[in-house]
Design a protein that fits this description.
By secondary structure, the protein is an alpha+beta fold. It has helices at about 20-30, 70-80, 85-95, 145-175, 180-185, 190-200; strands at about 40-50, 55-65, 120-125, 130, 135-145. Helix 1 runs antiparallel to helix 2, helix 3 crosses helix 4 and helix 4 (about 145-175) packs antiparallel against helix 6 (about 190-200). Helices cover about 35% and strands about 20% of the residues. It folds into 2 domains: about 20-155, no CATH class; about 155-210, no CATH class. The protein is built from 6 helices and 5 strands. Strands 1, 2, 3, 4 and 5 form a 5-stranded mixed β-sheet that branches.
Length: about 220
Amino acid sequence: MGTPRPSGHGSGDGPSVPAATVAALQDCAEHGAARLTDTHYAILFDVEVTGDGQVDKARVRESMIGDREIVSCMEDALHGMSLPGVVTPLRSSGTVYGGGGSVSPEGRTPLGHPAAAAAVVAVNLVPIVLVAAGVTIVVAVTVHVAEEAAEAIRRWPKKVEEKCQPPFQECLENPWQPKRNRETYGNYKDCGGCLAECRNKDGIWPEERCPRHWQY
C-alpha cells in the first residue's frame, strides 16, 4: 500500500478530523507504538456519515499496521465523531450527489457488510500524522455519505424553507422590536439575519432576536 501524502492536520487543504478525535487517535498510537517494529506506518479508513454528519460506521480499507489492538482502538476513535463540516457545504452547494458534486468510484461501493447502504459521494479528510515512541503513523480517512443520508440532505432545503419562510414574512410585516428587546437589539428586528440563522439551525426560528407576534 502506498503511504498517503500528509498535508498536516488543520492545514486548510480540506475538511479535518475533529481535534478530540485526533487526540483519541494519538492515545491509540501511544499505547501501542512500543509493540511496532518499524518506524513508519500508514492506515486508511472508510467512515460513513448520516445526514447530520455523525459517523455511524468506521472500517479499515488498508493498513500497514498488523497490531489489532491499535487498529481496533482507532476504529473506536473514529466511530461516532461528528463531521458537520463535510455535510453542510453539500447542503448549501446546490450540487448534491449527481448534480455536479464530486463523486469518486469508491463512493459507490457499499461500506462494510452487504446490508450497508451504498454510498454515493466520498470526501477525503486532511491526513493525520501521529508520532509516538519514535514511530510515525499516517492516518487517512475517507468520508462516505450513504444513499439514505443523501436523500435526507436533498430534502433539507425545502423542509427548512417551509419552516423559516412563515416567520420571516411575519417579521417583515411587523419589523418593530417589542419594548423589552430594544435595549439589546435596537428598535427593529434583523429579519434577514434571523432568516439566515433559521436556515443554519435546520428550521428553528430565533424567537428571542425576532419574536413572533404572539410573544409580545
